[in-house]
Amino acid sequence: MLTISGLVKKYGAGDPVLKNLDLEVEGEQILSVIGSSGAGKSTLLRCINRLVEPTSGTITLNGTDYTRLGKRDLRVARRRIGMVFQSFNLVDRLTVMENIQCGRLGYISTWAALTRRYPKEDIRRAFDLMERVGIAHYADKRADELSGGERQRVGVIRALMQDPEILLADEPTASLDPKTSEQIMMLLRDLASELKLPVIINIHNVNEAKEFSDRIVGMRYGRIIFDDLPTALTEDAMHEIYAGIPLADRQAEGAAA
Ligand SMILES: Nc1ncnc2c1ncn2[C@@H]1O[C@H](COP(=O)(O)OP(=O)(O)OP(=O)(O)O)[C@@H](O)[C@H]1O
Fold it and tell me: Which fold has domain 2-256?
């Protein structure tokens, strides 16, 4: 289980961009985080594995408080959190298999990684996953010879090779055409269920969020103002997330007036 408590993030001296967030994510589920640009979605995701350093608060994944880890322990603990990126973050000149095996860095020796002597079981698992997502025939192809959708499949498999306890996806479909985007969302949903993984997705496409998620969290101005089933995301809720003033602020303003 992932438990985020009182999470605050300030960049420099400005106002916090995450304001005392609490969030619990349990079991296999697809949780989509929506909200307008600058709401803090990406910062939230990146605080979870400390790609962005939280200012205060705690982030606990299955008993480990990530905010307390020193550098070395953090490096090890990060393996438990898979991450998928909008821009795929593949190494272009490496093959698909080599990119996928990057997910095992930290589990195998530097020597084995440098000489591409991957353990047999890692190769087998990579092929199983590549077959699962339909790219096994590209194992020896360079990453920069693939289409966007194929590259994102590689990104997903690389993250899964870490044997993560949770998967974070930061706008995983934003660089893809609508059809490919749907395929990747479907893939994330199916893999989450097959591997019993919780997946948190930062996503702009609300229709996709509604179609493929079990739960939607809506952010505005660094706060969570909606946390419910996709069916509860009504026009009013959308207005509040994207245009209106959040209820809590409205009430606070009303009380102050
Ligand atoms: N490295 C940084 N330094 C300073 N401010 C930052 C930094 N990264 C993000 N911010 C600011 O924090 C706020 C939240 O940004 P964040 O990227 O988390 O929002 P977002 O909801 O993911 O937006 P988008 O959907 O446009 O990606 C924004 O005002 C942004 O300008």
Answer: Rossmann fold (3.40.50)
